[in-house]
Design a protein that fits this description.
alpha+beta; Nucleotidyltransferase, domain 5; four-stranded mixed beta sheet; 41% helix; Ribosomal_uL18_bac/plant/anim; Ribosomal_uL18_bac-type; structural constituent of ribosome
Length: 117
Amino acid sequence: MANSKRDLFQKRRLRVRNKLRKVNAGRVRLSVHRSNKNISVQLIDDVQGVTLAAASTMEKELGGKNDVASAAKVGAAIAERAKKAGVTEAYFDRGGFLFHGRVKALADAAREGGLKI
Protein backbone atom coordinates (compact mmCIF):
# COMPACT_ATOMS: atom_id res chain seq x y z
CA MET A 1 0.00 0.00 0.00
CA ALA A 2 1.34 3.41 -0.98
CA ASN A 3 2.02 6.03 1.65
CA SER A 4 -0.10 9.16 1.61
CA LYS A 5 1.46 12.60 1.20
CA ARG A 6 0.88 13.26 4.89
CA ASP A 7 2.65 10.03 5.90
CA LEU A 8 5.64 10.88 3.71
CA PHE A 9 5.75 14.39 5.18
CA GLN A 10 5.71 13.01 8.74
CA LYS A 11 8.51 10.55 7.94
CA ARG A 12 10.62 13.35 6.45
CA ARG A 13 9.91 15.64 9.44
CA LEU A 14 10.90 12.98 11.98
CA ARG A 15 14.02 12.08 10.01
CA VAL A 16 15.19 15.71 10.05
CA ARG A 17 14.34 16.16 13.75
CA ASN A 18 16.16 12.96 14.78
CA LYS A 19 19.31 14.00 12.91
CA LEU A 20 19.21 17.35 14.69
CA ARG A 21 18.89 15.68 18.09
CA LYS A 22 22.01 13.61 17.42
CA VAL A 23 24.23 16.56 16.55
CA ASN A 24 22.70 19.20 18.82
CA ALA A 25 25.40 20.47 21.14
CA GLY A 26 23.30 22.74 23.33
CA ARG A 27 22.29 25.02 20.48
CA VAL A 28 18.75 26.24 20.05
CA ARG A 29 16.56 25.06 17.19
CA LEU A 30 15.22 27.37 14.48
CA SER A 31 11.97 25.64 13.59
CA VAL A 32 10.08 26.62 10.42
CA HIS A 33 6.44 26.00 9.56
CA ARG A 34 5.12 26.80 6.13
CA SER A 35 1.46 26.79 5.18
CA ASN A 36 -0.22 27.79 1.95
CA LYS A 37 -0.90 31.29 3.31
CA ASN A 38 1.84 32.01 5.86
CA ILE A 39 5.29 31.09 7.06
CA SER A 40 6.35 31.19 10.70
CA VAL A 41 9.56 30.49 12.57
CA GLN A 42 10.47 29.93 16.23
CA LEU A 43 13.72 29.79 18.18
CA ILE A 44 13.24 26.90 20.60
CA ASP A 45 15.47 25.89 23.49
CA ASP A 46 14.82 22.15 23.71
CA VAL A 47 16.70 21.75 27.00
CA GLN A 48 14.39 24.13 28.87
CA GLY A 49 11.42 23.56 26.56
CA VAL A 50 10.77 27.25 25.88
CA THR A 51 10.37 29.43 22.82
CA LEU A 52 12.92 32.26 22.90
CA ALA A 53 11.69 34.24 19.89
CA ALA A 54 9.20 33.93 17.06
CA ALA A 55 8.23 35.68 13.83
CA SER A 56 5.51 35.15 11.26
CA THR A 57 3.94 36.67 8.17
CA MET A 58 0.77 36.97 10.24
CA GLU A 59 2.36 40.05 11.82
CA LYS A 60 1.35 43.11 9.81
CA GLU A 61 4.82 44.66 9.73
CA LEU A 62 6.30 41.49 8.18
CA GLY A 63 4.17 41.48 5.06
CA GLY A 64 1.29 39.09 5.34
CA LYS A 65 1.83 37.84 1.81
CA ASN A 66 2.67 34.38 0.62
CA ASP A 67 5.86 35.07 -1.31
CA VAL A 68 9.62 34.80 -1.10
CA ALA A 69 10.06 38.49 -0.18
CA SER A 70 7.82 38.14 2.88
CA ALA A 71 9.68 35.00 3.93
CA ALA A 72 12.94 36.96 3.71
CA LYS A 73 11.44 39.67 5.96
CA VAL A 74 10.53 37.00 8.51
CA GLY A 75 14.10 35.63 8.34
CA ALA A 76 15.57 39.07 8.98
CA ALA A 77 13.13 39.65 11.85
CA ILE A 78 13.99 36.36 13.57
CA ALA A 79 17.72 37.14 13.28
CA GLU A 80 17.13 40.51 14.94
CA ARG A 81 14.99 38.98 17.69
CA ALA A 82 17.58 36.25 18.23
CA LYS A 83 20.23 38.88 18.89
CA LYS A 84 17.97 40.49 21.47
CA ALA A 85 17.49 37.09 23.12
CA GLY A 86 21.26 36.53 23.15
CA VAL A 87 21.28 33.74 20.56
CA THR A 88 24.01 33.69 17.89
CA GLU A 89 23.93 30.04 16.73
CA ALA A 90 21.02 27.75 15.94
CA TYR A 91 20.24 24.55 14.11
CA PHE A 92 17.86 24.97 11.18
CA ASP A 93 14.89 22.61 11.53
CA ARG A 94 13.07 22.70 8.22
CA GLY A 95 10.62 20.05 9.40
CA GLY A 96 9.27 18.07 6.48
CA PHE A 97 9.56 21.02 4.12
CA LEU A 98 12.07 21.00 1.30
CA PHE A 99 14.92 23.53 1.48
CA HIS A 100 13.63 25.50 -1.48
CA GLY A 101 11.69 28.66 -2.21
CA ARG A 102 10.27 30.38 0.86
CA VAL A 103 12.08 28.13 3.34
CA LYS A 104 15.43 28.83 1.66
CA ALA A 105 14.73 32.58 1.49
CA LEU A 106 13.96 32.62 5.21
CA ALA A 107 17.19 30.77 6.06
CA ASP A 108 19.32 32.99 3.82
CA ALA A 109 17.85 36.17 5.32
CA ALA A 110 18.46 34.87 8.85
CA ARG A 111 22.09 34.16 7.93
CA GLU A 112 22.48 37.66 6.47
CA GLY A 113 20.98 39.06 9.67
CA GLY A 114 23.84 37.55 11.67
CA LEU A 115 22.35 34.27 12.86
CA LYS A 116 24.77 31.38 12.39
CA ILE A 117 22.84 28.40 11.02
